[in-house]
Amino acid sequence: MKYVSTRGGMAPQSFSDILLEGLAPDGGLAVPEVLPRLSAETLAGWRGLPYADLAFEVLSLFADDIPADDLRRLTRAAYTEQIFGSEDIVPLRPLGGGLSLLGLSEGPTLAFKDMAMQFLGQVFEYVLTKRGTTLNILGATSGDTGSAAEYALRGKKGVAVFMLSPHGRMSAFQRAQMYSLQDPNIHNIAVHGVFDDCQDIVKALAGDLKFKAECRIGAVNSINWARIAAQVVYYIHGWLKATTRADQQVSFAVPSGNFGNILAGHIARRMGLPVRHLVLATNENNVLEEFFRTGVYRPRPAVQTYATSSPSMDISRASNFERFVYDLVGGDAARVAALWKELAGTGQFDLSSLRPAFASQYGFVAGASSHADRLATIRSTYDESGVLIDPHTADGVKVAQAYVEPGVPMLVLETALPAKFSDTIEEALGRRVPPPAALADLESLPQRVQILDCDAEAVKAYVRTHAAL
Ligand SMILES: *Cc1c(COP(=O)(O)O)cnc(C)c1O
Fold first, then answer.
1. What three-state secondary structure class fits 52?
2. Residue of 267, 292, 305, 415 with the most ligand 1 atoms within 8 Å of its CB, for mutation
3. Which segments of the chain belong to CATH 3.40.50.1100?
4. Where do the H-state alpha helices sit in 222-259?
5. For residue 308, how far is the Cα from the chain centroid?
6. φ, ψ for residue 135 (rounded to 5)?
7. Which pick of 124, 130, 186, 374 has the fewest CB atoms within 10 Å?
């Protein structure tokens, strides 16, 4: 399998080649030249496979430049009972009313990003070792993404992580989660500033080409194709668990921000997985919901992005959306390049002429949810099924309810555990949620963090002296 750019300006490359890169050289995103197809026989043959072996089967379609024995070793190391807490890895639980919960948040940081990151950690170490090179991952986090990356890359050979976070602005649990890591290749840097300051420093350093080359700076952001590929696995796993026959359709409801999670569902559907609807759920930051309603894509600046009680969805510029638009315009890379040029010029583009195809051809429907909806949904889900859901998952459940159809299982993707967002749970139910037993002592563990001024030069100096070389 070869990968090309959504904007047409990249010679075809292998999976391992695009693994360590960010954007394509033309500013586009890497996509498979041709998608593999899943036949009914193939899907039937995968029934009953352990999750790690299903992951091997699916990922071998995308990473065919990695020898099968090696890839199988990587997926078996990534998806273990020890890391994900049960043999199932991704459990499926009924919620009542035709809904089920696909449990993607059983990993070390209690959010779905672990699903892709655990594989990414394995495959990064493998490819770096094979190529005899090293990489220093630089990132900024306000909580979730940074911790998933650190837990995936801790102790890995040839790679170090430098994660900037705003000093004093994360929850005690989030701080403990990141700062208690004692692995020498993990560097937490608390910056005197806010999250945007951290991000500005990362941008400044990544834009300094001399420094970037000298210290071999890389990223593990949401546009990484290996993350999308690893997420395709749990859509297939969910379908296998919810069905018994090859022609049975299911729908998936996905709490969305960056369009990363639901893009994997779209890929699975295009590969031939019998998916009826992909239900895209947003919070008050409804840029994507607006697109699927009107056909107009109109991202908003940071000042118009609300801080909500589902904070990991407070995103108004969906970086993975370009891959979907590429499919929507029939793989016409010149058209994608023109649309993004228009976006840069006018702040929006209009694909309303294609609107009839969104649901009929691609299965996409959408809805938005509010703070009051989240509280009511957390409460009613708990009352009716005894299952406690987090505010992001509540956005998914709320929107999913409008699209339930008889005979079509609706699988809501659980994107985080409620213990991570105990304040909102308390507001909904009047009580807090303790963290899982294994993490009960987390906040009392010794913490290791470097506090630095909000100064790109200071961060640069720190990275230089601690980089993996
Ligand atoms: C990242 C995240 C999301 C949004 O996922 P996207 O792939 O960016 O759309 C939703 N919920 C939680 C808890 C997250 O961490």
1. helix
2. 415
3. 3-113+224-424, 134-215+442-466
4. 225-242
5. 19
6. -145, 140
7. 130
Nearest CA to ligand 1 atom 1: 312
For domain 134-215+442-466, the CATH architecture is 3-Layer(aba) Sandwich (3.40)
Rounded CA separation 364/373 (Å):
22
CA distance 357 to 81: 41
Residue 252's DSSP bridge partners are 278, 411
What are residue 309's phi and psi, to 5 degrees? -85, 5
The whole-angstrom separation of Cα 139 and Cα 459 is 12
Alpha-carbon distance 242 to 468, whole Å? 45
> In testing the pocket of ligand 1, which one of 102, 104, 106, 112 has its CB within 8 Å of the most ligand atoms?
112
DSSP E strand boundaries for 219-327: 250-255, 275-282, 296-297
Structure tokens belonging to residue 241: 């668990």
CATH match of 3-113+224-424 with 3.40.50.1100: yes
Report how far apart the first and last C-alpha atoms of the chain are (Å, whole number).
31
For 172-203, letters b (16+ CB in 10 Å) and e give ebbbbbbbbbeeebbbbbbbebebebbbbbbe
Which of 351, 391, 354, 362 is closest to 375 using CA atoms?
391
b/e burial code for range 318-336 (CB count within 10 A of at least 16 → b): bbbbbbbbbbbbeeebebb
**What whole-number distance in Å separates Cα of residue 352 and Cα of residue 76?**
44
312 lines ligand 1 (CB under 6 A): yes
State whether the beta carbon of 286 lies less than 6 angstroms from ligand 1: no
Cα separation, 256 vs 150, in Å, equals 22
Give me the active site residues, please: 113
**CA distances, 162 to each of 154, 177, 404 (Å):** 11, 15, 44
- CA 362 to centroid of ligand 1, rounded, Å: 21
Find, among 265, 283, 396, the residue nearest to 327 by Cα.
265
Instruction: Provide the angle, in degrees to the nearest 10, between the axes of the packed helices 422-429 and 371-385.
Output: 70
